[in-house]
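Entries read chain and fold; for instance:
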Amino acid sequence: MVQRVTYSLDFEKPMLELEHKIEELKGLANKEGLDFNEEISRLQSRLKKLEEETLAHLTPWQKVQLARHPNRPKSLTLVHLIFDDFLPLHGDRLYSEDQAIIGGLARIEEERVVFIGHQKGESIKDNLSRNFGMAHPEGYRKAHRLMNLAEKLHRPILTFIDTPGAYPGIEAEERGQAEAIAANLERMSQLQVPILVIIIGEGGSGGALGIGVGDRILMLENAVYSVITPEGCAAILWKNQEKVEEAAKALRLTSQDLFNLGLIDEIIPEPRGGAHKDPEQTALNIKERIIKHLEELKKISPTEVVEKRYKKYRGIGKFKRG
């Protein structure tokens, strides 16, 4: 079922205008009993051609905009669509509850997992409480606690990444932001349970890596994954925000770029126009890949899981000697 969006990007507007015209004609035909089939068919052909021309040539910056689309399904939306059961767990047992990272015990059909994910807000108020998906140290320490629980229960770990980065405020640094992320990197490198990581929207810097070390790394088609945001890159390299498009291209942050570079293992297709057009189909696509990869990873012994994970990350990066 297509979700009616309340927000549109600049390159989406011509397509949405045609969609609205088609819906208006269909409504008028039903109300007045008139025959607009020929006109509707003509508009549908125009729409299909426009979609093909637009969506086939999206720039990296436009894909960043899609990854950040306000109507793009967030972690909790996907949790409710994918999981058959979900028991949320809260707090890091040290400081407080960080709503930018959610987690708990989950079941997908017969597979039981420990889930961890970034959560952006669904509204302005919700975004403020969740800090726009930018976690504090207590969020990463909550994730660390859930990782330990997964190993204790012998359950695979599933993570959803969707954050511009870890929160950079002074209070986060005072409470040990860098240490909390580093502790997670160390812990995830040693866990003897399978780890499946999926970038569902925006994967930014250490904030993403704090729950992003895995045996398989998957990305939604229009998600992005980078060491820094295009805005941050433009500010550092050019000191000019008008360079964000150039920065996005230089960062090679699209799923297609990262797959070609060998940094991710698979691209999960999205519905035409982006995940926000059909969250249900997006969730179904993700669920199918989760089941497939967990089934494969379960066949590997705990010792071999750690060894393969180590080799995977040691093998990242290709260099040419001059």
